[in-house]
Amino acid sequence: MLILGLDPGTATTGFGLIKKEGKKITSLDFGLIETDKEISSPQRLILIHKEIKKIINKHKPDVVAMERLFFAANAKTAMDVGRACGIMIFTAAKANLEVFEYAPMTIKKVVAGNGKADKKMVQKALRKILGARVRSKKNGKTHFDNAADALAVALCHAYTIKVDKGGEK
Amino acid sequence: MLILGLDPGTATTGFGLIKKEGKKITSLDFGLIETDKEISSPQRLILIHKEIKKIINKHKPDVVAMERLFFAANAKTAMDVGRACGIMIFTAAKANLEVFEYAPMTIKKVVAGNGKADKKMVQKALRKILGARVRSKKNGKTHFDNAADALAVALCHAYTIKVDKGGEK
């Protein structure tokens, strides 16, 4: 089973693709979808749609797992992330992929064993499970953070697969 | 100029189409896009996309005006409305339509002359400008509320057209 994990954002969306074969889990790909702040908001949504579609067409995942954000630092950010989120769900659904959403605390608990784990703990757990090669491709810590969150939600799904369409856990 | 006004929601989205010829403004159509609560969230987004596309193909508006919501009663609602909003903006942008967003207070001020106008005042102003025929098609007050909000934002755009791509006013 191929799981595409997405960590939604407007400027930077992380993606991470993992393969689950029985108990064996490996990471196949991870990276970022970045949209220029100079581009208008509607064009950024079109770009996000295009890039997610490209990843789906390239890797043909069986399912999409996304981090469900319930609130953001401010209402404008919440609304903007919500828009980007909507495009991701729409793109997955148009490709006939089921979308599973997980709350951040659930992801941390499943991946790092602690719902209050910090970023370092989650990343340490990720490397332990997926192997040492899961490192920033751009040597930028911030960059890996986003891709790591995407790998984490994919991993969370791999560990907790249930038949529960579009539900939250 | 044909302006498509949208009042975004997840369960019920209002739409209103107005025509501006010089100083003459008339309403051409208004109504609701309703999605069943029983349908999964991804499928509802697909439905919203489909219906907006249908309205755009039917009426061929020149521009889309939307109410920009900055916050909602709760974070989950904000996120859900944000998703639906994202789909509407995406659909308009894919049809090469510019999207203009207006804050609720701006709409009330432009349409009813008072940024703190209540629903009744806005609807009274709408009927005065667009004519007595602007009434609920379903005889349901709630139903007209949503379509009225869509007509109001279209009207707001008609009165305040500026070259300001995707901006907020």
Instruction: List the quaternary state of the chains.
Output: homodimer
User: What ranges of chain A have pLDDT less than 50 throughout 5 or more consecutive residues?
Assistant: 163-169
Domain module count of chain A:
1
What is the CATH top level name of chain A?
A: Alpha Beta
Across the major sheet of chain A, the strand order is 3-2-1-4-5
Strand content of chain A: 15-25%
Helix content of chain A: 40-55%
State the secondary-structure class of chain A: alpha/beta
What integer is the average pLDDT of chain A?
86
Most extensive chain-chain interface: A-B, 32 and 32 residues
The CATH topology of chain A is Nucleotidyltransferase, domain 5
**SSE string of chain A, helix = H, strand = E?**
EEEHEHEHHH
Number of strands of chain A: 5
CATH superfamily of chain A: Ribonuclease H-like superfamily/Ribonuclease H
Tell me the distance between the termini of chain A: 20 Å
> What count of helical segments of chain A does DSSP give?
5
Rg over CA atoms of chain A: 15 Å
Question: Biggest β-sheet of chain A, characterized?
Answer: 5 strands, mixed
* Mass-distribution shape of chain A: globular
CATH architecture of chain A: 2-Layer Sandwich
